[in-house]
C-alpha cells in the first residue's frame, strides 16, 4: 500500500483499445503498481479504482506516487501522462490534487488487497 492514506491526485484514465494498447478484455478494479510518464520522465505509482472498465472507456483512479515529494510538482491539475507497462497502455490526466488535503478518500479508507499488476485489460482478470 502507499505510504500515505490520501492519494496524491485523482486522475481520469482512458484505456487504449485494440492494437494501440493490446487490450482484449476488461480491466478489473483494484490496486495496480505501474509507471507514469510525464515530460519524458518516468515515475513509479500505485493506482486504485473500482469496477471493471473496457478499452476506450474513461474512468477515475486515485494515484499515489512513490516519490511524491519529487514527482508531484510535475503532476499539476490538468497535466496529461501516459501509463506504461511493456509499452503505453493508457493515458491519464490529473483531475484534482488531493495530497495534503484534510479530505480522506472513501476508496483510500477501505482496506484493499495489493495486486502487482499491469494496466492491461485481462491481466488481473
Provide the descriptors you would attach to this structure in a database record.
125 residues; mainly beta; Elongation Factor Tu (Ef-tu), domain 3; six-stranded antiparallel beta barrel; 3 helices; 10% helix; disordered C terminus
Query: What is the name of the CATH topology?
Result: Elongation Factor Tu (Ef-tu), domain 3
Task: Indicate the mean pLDDT.
Answer: 76
Sheet of most strands: 6 strands, antiparallel, barrel
Counting DSSP E segments of at least 2 residues, the number of strands comes to: 6
Describe the protein in words:
With 125 residues, this protein is mainly β. It has one domain (9-109): Elongation Factor Tu (Ef-tu), domain 3, CATH 2.40.30. It is 10% helix and 44% strand. A 6-stranded antiparallel β-barrel has the order 1-4-3-2-5-6. The protein is globular. The two termini are 20 Å apart.
Short description:
The protein has 125 residues and is mainly beta. The protein has helices at residues 18-21, 68-71, 106-109; strands at 9-15, 27-38, 41-53, 58-65, 80-84, 88-97. It is built from 3 helices and 6 strands.
Amino acid at each position: 500500500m502507499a505510504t500515505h492514506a490520501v492519494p496524491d491526485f485523482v486522475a481520469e484514465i482512458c484505456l487504449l483499445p485494440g492494437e494501440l494498447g493490446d487490450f482484449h478484455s476488461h480491466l478489473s478494479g483494484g490496486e495496480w503498481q505501474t509507471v507514469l510518464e510525464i515530460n519524458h520522465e518516468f515515475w513509479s505509482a500505485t493506482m486504485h479504482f473500482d469496477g471493471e472498465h473496457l478499452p476506450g472507456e474513461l474512468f477515475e483512479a486515485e494515484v499515489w506516487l512513490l516519490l511524491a515529494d519529487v514527482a508531484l510538482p510535475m503532476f499539476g491539475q490538468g497535466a496529461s501522462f501516459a501509463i506504461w507497462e511493456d509499452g503505453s497502455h493508457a493515458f491519464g490526466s490529473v483531475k484534482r490534487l488531493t495530497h495534503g488535503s484534510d479530505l480522506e478518500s472513501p476508496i483510500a479508507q477501505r482496506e484493499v488487497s495489493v495486486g502487482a499488476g499491469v494496466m492491461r485489460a485481462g491481466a488481473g482478470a
